[in-house]
Amino acid sequence: MSCSSGPSGYAAARAESRNHANTTVHYVEGRPYFPVLNVDPSDEKAMIETSRTVLNAYCSSNITSDTMDVKVTRIAGGLTNALFKIDFPNTSVLVRIFGAEGMIDRDLETATFARLCGTPHNGGTNPNGADESSKKVVHPDLDMIGRFANGRVESWIPNMRQSTMQDFDSNLMGGVARVLARLHYGFEVPSYLYKAECREVDGRRERIKVLRPNLWEVIYAWIDELKDSLAQDKFNTDLIQLFCEATLGRVGCSKEEIIASLRQETKWLQSTVKMSHPDATVAFTHNDLCTANILLDQSRDADPCIIDYEYGSISYTMYDVANFFCELCGGNDYGVPNIELFPSMERQRQFLKEYVTEKKRIVERVGNDRVDDISQLQSEIKLFQMASNLMWGIWGVLQASGEVTIESFCKETAKLRLDGKIDDDSFDYLRYGMNRLKNYRICKESLSR
């Protein structure tokens, strides 16, 4: 058994565990890690045994109940991962089987999620001496229990449910604003998330560590992945023309033109943000604040709980807000967001007033406040609304890569599918991605009006 911290701790554990038994355990960020233990999400017995093994290693317990006494329930709403609730006789946990292979750095994401949860609640060994204040930015009952090769085990928070579009009245919007401000300004960013840059300091060039937004890096990386998918003919040629119409507003373009256009749009947007808002605040952000990732207390008296930080990174705080506003347009059911549901300017102001009030309460303790102009924040949101549509549009199409090929593509129904007029039992990533890209184009056209 070894103890380590940060993303490198997971990599070291895997290297050390080669050719070892799947029960070999290491401790990273104070939580057990089984680097050789893989779980098939279709095998309920394996999920039960894995969650039992991880839970026992975490809290030095001895859960030995028969599998007949354990209930496994598939949790709806996860678009990236497969989620399951495991009910043991005396406790319940959430098992997350990782998806989106290659699109998320799981070592970085899991280490940071552990830091957000703070010192292990029920045991474990924390080599960092993590500050207990870390727990204040997430729900006190939210915890990362441990990790296995292709997923992890988290605490199950009782008496809470996923939010729905109908829940978002002014009270809940205020609650989300407060929780988001706590995340942005109350979380002590781990050193491994800082980037080294050469800057002018007192007339000398010095190498210092800074918080650098990775939003553009992620978008460019996903464009490169999309280029590879197009080159490998993972999409039907007729579908590519529909893709061209969604991204460029015209038909008859090549794969190369699509990729060039996406890169050009990203470069233009990045430059526009830099020129218009050079001092835009950067912090640790969630980046995927949809209704499924917001849990509500059954009584509705407490602030909501934000979960699923797998797309969390260093980015612009107003991108996080704009992305949340985009999620209020829906689309996580049938893949067709309604851009008309984007919050009005007045609703945005109400949200931002609550956000700024909570931010001031936090930063006054550390003496690092600055005056926030709400109209300026709204100006940032207008640009980051476009960034959200661009990023998640590319993500959606990438998730569908390989699903819609010559054998499965139906030209006659494709347009209806993209317009949301044909329902499917499973989530339609392709429809969602193309509609987000269409919304990007609509937002850009509105800028010139």
UniProtKB/TrEMBL annotation:
GO terms for molecular function: ethanolamine kinase activity. Its EC number is 2.7.1.82. Pathway: Phospholipid metabolism; phosphatidylethanolamine biosynthesis; phosphatidylethanolamine from ethanolamine: step 1/3. It holds the Pfam family Choline_kinase. InterPro entries: Kinase-like_dom_sf. Transmembrane segments: none annotated. Belongs to the choline/ethanolamine kinase family. This is ethanolamine kinase. It comes from Cyclotella atomus.
